[in-house]
Amino acid sequence: MRRISRHRVSYVITHSKEEHGHLLGINSLALDTTTLNPETGKSEGILYSAGRDGVISSWDLHLPFRKNGPKNKDAQNNRDNEASEKIGDFKSNWEIDDEIDLSSQPPRNSTFRQSFRGHTDWVNDIILCHNNETLISASSDRTLKLWHPHKSNSPSTIGYHTDYIKVLSYAPGPGWVASGGFDRKIIIWDVTEFRPSSGISSINAVDQDHPKI
């Protein structure tokens, strides 16, 4: 009989220099409506996207955001235009500035800002904290990373789970981030010191004998 030869082929899919989108599906989004555009001095919105390609990208939206104030009580009641966002140590409501006629002054198209590649597997969740100056990412590579998107320094690894990290939550008062993973644990992290927070730092969310869902 003729022997069948087999060859193993491997390949890497990369972005072209002209394209900045994700190569695989997007798992999570985070919106920054407070950072000022250095060109205009106004809040125009930055959208962060995290994907299954292990990449976190940011995009300038070029939309006219403003903070709700007492003079805009009617606008505050209009939930169609409001974006509720956790920022720093307080919760603030932001909206599209309806005093600007977008039909006569259409906003610019969204533009690519930058991208970060610090994970080796899916990025499952991202959150913004510390007045939108810090971004936390959770990945299937079992790492929790801290990024400073407005600086050029590399990401820092806060800690690890023993299985995929799936979800994050931020407590702005104490400055904690909680992470939940497929290892059935919830870990509370002090992101200022890159360690599990003192006190309650790890919770077994499900009985160890219970099957995974």
UniProtKB/TrEMBL annotation:
Superkingdom of origin organism: Eukaryota
Protein name: 4546_t:CDS:1
Species in which this protein is naturally found: Acaulospora morrowiae
Sequence segments annotated as region (Disordered): 66-88
Compositional bias segments (type: Basic and acidic residues): 71-88
Residues in WD repeats: 116-157, 158-191
Record Pfam families: WD40
UniProt GO BP: double-strand break repair via homologous recombination
PROSITE patterns registered for this protein in UniProt: WD_REPEATS_1, WD_REPEATS_2, WD_REPEATS_REGION
Repeat recorded as keyword: yes
Family matches, as InterPro entries: WD40/YVTN_repeat-like_dom_sf, WD40_PAC1, WD40_repeat_CS, WD40_repeat_dom_sf, WD40_rpt, WDR48
Heme keyword on record: no
UniProt keyword annotations, A-Z: Repeat, WD repeat
GO molecular function: ubiquitin binding
